[in-house]
Amino acid sequence: MSLQAIHNIPEICAQLGITDVVLSPGSRCAPLTIAFARHPSIQVRTVPDERAAAFIGLGLAQAQRRAVALVCTSGTAGLNYAPAVAEAYFQQIPLIVFTADRPPEWVDQLDGQTIRQADLYGAHAKGSFQFPADTSHADAQWHAARIVSEAIGLAEQFPAGPVQINVPLREPFYPKPGEELRFEAVKVTRELPGRPQLPATALAELRDAIRSTSRVLLVAGQHPADTELLLALHRFAAAFQVPVVGDLIANLHLPAAPDYDQRLRPLGRQDVFMAVPEPGLKEALKPELLITFGQSLISKALKLYLRNARPAQHWHIQSAGPVADTFQSLTKVVRMEPADFFAALTEMPGTTESIIGSKSSDPGSIPSGTTTSTGSASYTTTPNHTAAQDATRVARPAAPAGTPRLVWPGSGGQLSDTEALAKAAYLKPWLAAENWATGFLQDFMRAPKQPFNEFTAIYHALQQLPDRTALHLANSMAVRYANILGVPAGRFVEVFANRGTSGIDGCTSTAVGAALAQPGRPVVLLTGDVAFFYDRNAFWHNYATPNLRVILLNNHAGGIFRLIDGPRQQPELEEFFETRQPLTAANTARDFNLRYLTAQSFAELESVLPVFFAPESGASLLEITTDSKTNAEFFEQYRAAVKSSFA
């Protein structure tokens, strides 16, 4: 059997921009392994555990923003990829999954390491391709090369995602002694990316609807850091005086330009102020027109609020692919890139120079002497809201008299005075709530005489994150704590989390992949004990990650269940929900050559954090040990304070 078609696979991958392969050793995949390992333009990393390998590949792809290939042997090896494949599908990350297989005639014939591998990932892959078992004919060779090109193109088309190529292989697998592999000049098919654009008339209609609606709210779901998008958002928000809200994983907190002014920062304290039991505040924040982009939200409070608020109109901005009706109010899908959409609205005729940028007014800064006029944490309810009259337009209530107009660069540049007053009346309570929540958190987290607890420990750790950090948040409480607390204002900290499926199974491996992809950048993983010990094989490889820092919150239990109404009231809590365990990470750190640091008090934490984050410390693991009951009691104090402190 000729293996030339197999040997051409790495060449096709290289021509189409794939530079990284993560493989797990096996016999059936030997031809793929040898071909990738010998290709001069491909970097191959070996990770024995297929589950960890797939998440490491996901982390590489996530950090590099391009497709990564996975290679495994036949049988259950490919099934171990499934959690990462599902996460990649819902997080829209391109993976090319090569699963070596037995020849088709041996499937279901009780042959070893043989399962039904065709379409192995079902609805959780964008596509599944079957490589020809016999490539002796010229047409079969053309077919084989075409399959690989098509699969890579499909994986990278928006919305990106994983694609399987199942490769049946017959023996012999190995080249003869002294035989050299040839990488032929293979024809590839390239996909040129495009960005859809709406007609000017449609954009004008949408712009008019935004102008004529006083209560417009923009909410961002999970999204990679994107400076172009951030600048477009700031200009849009200023031009139309629209509150912009996003979880930490939306990456709206990042500085949009070197001279970025924090008074233009989008809102991110919704997990705090949405917990305030004040119906007047909830009414004041209620939108008539909701505009969204991005993927999932962490904030359950915001998600439930928007479902109950029932805006008359909900537009989602997404260039292609299926759109979820997360808030049960979706009325319009706008097929554009979010950055293009928001830029187009502010660059249409009638826009002032200060919005689109001019020599005298930079959109990333606030002119001296101006303020945001947010005031205190008071709020104003705008009366007499009317329902939408048609599929586009939302009726505008009369502007309340005496409402101050906010003064940002280009503030209200698209609006008449009456429209600007009405917009400011809606924007003001959002800004006031954000300001209150920021001040409340700062005072609460710095209060003296606290018991040592993981919530406050995370607060102190986040304050010391190095600039340019890639912050990875493990699922369960780590991502929730961080979403409440945020990261230091003005610091470039890009945030990642596996919120496609929100599983704990590969959080550490994903961070390891990111550290391998960006060796010159600090990569910090914030994780809990259950997620950490579940994924210890993330470190089972032979590649240095001196830029990796792992902050492990070890409360010797699944502490989230003490914080959720339902399980915490049950007598089975400790045995059947908390996953109690006596482990420490000392052995893991020793086994995988990680510098091991510990903290069991605020004094120890304050002493160890500078050492932990120091570049010369190398790959390090900081284990913060707390008591699960104390953590739950302190978090209850926090929640009670939120409910009683708003004024």
Report on this model:
By secondary structure, this protein is of the alpha/beta class. It has three domains: 3-168, Rossmann fold; 200-346, 3-Layer(aba) Sandwich (Rossmann fold); 447-645, Thiamin diphosphate (ThDP)-binding fold, Pyr/PP domains (Rossmann fold, 3-Layer(aba) Sandwich). 36% of the residues lie in helices and 13% in strands. The protein has 22 helices and 17 strands. It has helices spanning 4-15, 30-38, 50-64, 76-79, 82-91, 138-156, 200-212, 227-240, 270-273, 279-285, 300-309, 338-346, 353-356, 417-445, 454-463, 477-485, 507-517, 529-534, 573-577, 586-591, 602-613, 628-645, and strands at residues 20-23, 43-46, 68-72, 95-101, 127-130, 162-168, 216-220, 244-246, 289-293, 313-317, 332-334, 469-473, 493-497, 523-528, 548-554, 595-599, 620-625. Helix 1 (4-15) packs across helix 2. The radius of gyration is 27 Å and the shape is globular. It starts with a helix and ends with a helix.
